[in-house]
Amino acid sequence: MDKFEKIDQEIKGYTQDKQPGSERDMNPRPIAEDDDYKAGGKLTGKIALITGGDSGIGRAVAILYAKEGADVAIGYYDETADAEDTVKRLEELGAKAKAYAFDLKDVEQCRKLVSDVVTDFGGLNIVVNNGGVQFPQEDFLAITPEQIQTTFSTNIFGMMYVSQAAIPHLSAGDTIINTSSVTAYRGSESLIDYSATKGAITAFTRSLAQNLAPKKIRVNSVAPGPIYTPLIPATFPAEKVEKHGQETAMERRGQPSENAPAYVFLASQDSTYITGQAIHINGGDYLSS
């Protein structure tokens, strides 16, 4: 049994009462850092901004970026303890790091986030649009206009706001990486508005990649499947948390650290001929559906 299977079996049903959730309060905590990873200086000298970078996939990406030599700014909503934990770890790894509280739904806050990062770090090379929310609802007719507005404003409008603010600061060779989802491709009967935003992210990624290709700025996405992040216990009932990921071909959920190398690949010189694409990290979800 490997470490990923072991922690999967240790996870019992539990919930949190607020989105996007707290990683510090999870038991066991997700695997954000894989000691088997061998860094190669692939992002030395780069400056990265990661929204939703305080926990989950964003935290794991931030850690690998720091290991690869980047300085890292993380945007977060209100999970201050998680943000502080992440910044502390990035600084231990030798990176310049800072966390910024902001609201993805607010265009002015998105613009200020990017402006503050550029001022504080002296530039920007990598944008990881990762922040998001989801609100399960079995009955489509019960989804309120307010829920739809919140889901779209957070997941896709905010991604576009941050990207618009960042692009004037990016140059040839720089990258934008968007977090999509397996639900963009297979749908989800209980996450209809969320899946719709993830489909929009896929189309946004492909379209922006074409738009920015003349500037030699690449735009790609990562489409995770069931990954153990704070959003899961903050979203689902306890019984679903416990069984999360068992429907995949690999019969387990994934860990944030299993996603992070894809974000390194897409931000580095290893992927110079890749744009408008998606990397699927879902434990064989397609194969089992």
UniProtKB/TrEMBL annotation:
GO terms for molecular function: diacetyl reductase ((S)-acetoin forming) (NAD+) activity. Residues 1-11 have a biased composition (Basic and acidic residues). It is an enzyme of class 1 (oxidoreductase). Keywords: Oxidoreductase. This is Diacetyl reductase [(S)-acetoin forming]. It catalyses: (S)-acetoin + NAD(+) = diacetyl + NADH + H(+). It comes from Macrococcus equipercicus. It comes from the Bacteria. Its EC number is 1.1.1.304. Residues 1-35 are annotated as: Disordered. One of its GO terms (biological process) is bile acid metabolic process. Catalyzes the irreversible reduction of 2,3-butanediol to (S)-acetoin in the presence of NADH. Belongs to the short-chain dehydrogenases/reductases (SDR) family. The keyword NADP does not apply.
